[in-house]
Design brief:
This protein is mainly β. The protein is 0% helix and 54% strand.
Length: 118
């Protein structure tokens, strides 16, 4: 499966952004799609994931209540709605896919930059 992430940009603190991750190629319902981010000098952080088949979700504590992950099966797209953005949310955001029976994310999108100014 190939992933294309988009939707990043420059916003002010308190603003919202919605990131999109479009899946193509050998898509399957037995996947998790996850969103990650990596800020300069920091390790990559897992933010949220969604089971493509069931729609069940998981959120990291750092974004719980502010970020929402959702899927649109008809568009083969997973979204990350980000509200109440903070300067510390500044990072490159990536989407990735892994089979629901595995633990390793095998396919990664190219990343989209999110910059939040104070």
């Amino acid at each position: 499966v190939q992933l294309q992430a988009s939707g990043g940009g420059l916003v002010q603190a308190g603003d919202s952004l919605r990131l999109s991750c479009v899946a193509s190629g050998r898509t399957s319902s037995r996947y998790y799609i996850g969103w990650f981010r990596q800020a300069p000098g920091k390790e990559r952080e897992s933010l949220a994931r969604i089971n493509w088949s069931s729609g069940s979700t998981y959120y990291a504590d750092s974004v719980k209540g502010r970020f929402t992950i959702a899927r649109d099966s008809a568009k083969n797209t997973v979204y990350l709605q980000m509200n109440s953005l903070k300067p510390e949310d500044t990072a490159v955001y990536y989407c990735a896919a892994r089979p629901d029976y595995g633990a390793v994310y095998e396919s990664w999108g190219q990343g989209t930059q999110v910059t939040v100014s104070s």
